[in-house]
Backbone:
């Protein structure tokens, strides 16, 4: 092989490598104004199975193909959860590009499965936005998912037979990319307009 | 004179001795499936003495408490506040993510635009009523 063909092969290899990395690295750097973008550090979610508010299974595969914003909370939460869901609803309402809104899904995952039956979740999420999806599962099914996302939650002051108790929980909104990888985080308190600009950037650049 | 005295007695439980200036008092509405609501307001104490809120009640809810949010072990946690003292000249905000009224078990499902009457009881035994607006 002569010198010039080596150069050509090397250039070709470089081009192929570049193109490959372009396809593989679907998490291009995006500067967010209101959240944290993990970029190359995005990590695959474990397999899980929840039940959505229509009593249909919600699995890792259900998240593929969309940009997913997931908030973990409970319907008996008087202040934090309604505020975050309202912010998400306002965020969706303020994005004008239908290609962007069409690429987004919003989930409310209850960490209080005993009280938040599918019927309750259905009424609850639709109150904020008819397109939002509510889901939950028994604790042993829920924990591997929340743990992998760094979402802490704990039932407190629970007295057998008493329906009044609290659920402590993280208040961040988790971002899962179309490959079902944990790709970013929006810490509380969230701002609807800033999140709308961030999600528009993410969808358009990726 | 006696009539005047009786009239005063009649007015006493309401605003005759209103101790606090309360503004922007509202209740965050939630769907009927949820049996709790949060209430928010701005409380200012125009008196030259401290005023302590020791109890709350409403005919629209089974119970009303004062709660506080705090961050603990990376989680938002809710805690009951048994009494709240507002110092002379001080303004206290009840706002999402901080202090709030916890309105439990609405007697009827709440609707945006409604007014609900809340009674605040102070440590000296006096009371103050206020109307809270339900907002979407
Ligand atoms: Cu509370």
Residues:
């Amino acid at each position: 092989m002569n010198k010039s063909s080596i150069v050509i092969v090397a250039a070709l290899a470089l081009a192929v490598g570049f193109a490959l990395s372009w396809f593989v690295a679907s998490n291009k750097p995006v500067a967010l104004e209101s959240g944290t973008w993990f970029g190359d550090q995005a990590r695959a979610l474990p397999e899980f199975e929840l039940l959505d508010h229509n009593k249909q299974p919600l699995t890792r595969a259900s998240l593929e193909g969309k940009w997913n914003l997931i908030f973990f909370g409970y319907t008996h939460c008087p202040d934090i959860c309604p505020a975050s869901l309202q912010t998400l609803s306002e965020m969706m309402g303020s994005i004008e590009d239908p290609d962007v809104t069409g690429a987004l899904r919003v989930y409310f995952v209850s960490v209080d499965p005993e009280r938040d039956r599918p019927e309750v979740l259905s009424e609850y999420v639709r109150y904020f936005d008819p397109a939002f999806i509510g889901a939950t599962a028994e604790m042993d099914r829920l924990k591997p998912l929340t743990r992998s996302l760094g979402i802490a939650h704990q039932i407190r002051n629970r007295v057998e037979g008493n329906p009044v108790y609290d659920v402590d929980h993280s208040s961040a909104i988790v971002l899962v990319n179309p490959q079902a990888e944990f790709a970013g985080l929006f810490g509380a308190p969230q701002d609807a307009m800033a999140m709308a600009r961030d999600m528009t950037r993410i969808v358009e650049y990726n | 004179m006696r009539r005047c005295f009786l009239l005063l007695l009649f007015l006493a439980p309401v605003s005759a001795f209103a101790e606090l200036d309360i503004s922007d008092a509202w209740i965050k509405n939630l769907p009927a499936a949820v049996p709790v609501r949060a209430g928010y307001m701005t409380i200012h104490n125009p008196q030259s003495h401290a005023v302590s809120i020791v109890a709350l009640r409403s005919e629209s809810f089974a119970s009303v408490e004062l709660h506080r949010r705090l961050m603990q072990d990376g989680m938002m946690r809710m805690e009951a506040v048994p009494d709240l003292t507002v110092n002379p000249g001080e303004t206290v905000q009840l706002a999402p993510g901080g202090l709030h009224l916890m309105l439990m078990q609405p007697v009827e499902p709440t609707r945006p635009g409604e007014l609900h009457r809340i009674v605040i009881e102070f440590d000296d035994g006096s009371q103050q009523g206020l109307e809270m607006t339900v907002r979407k």
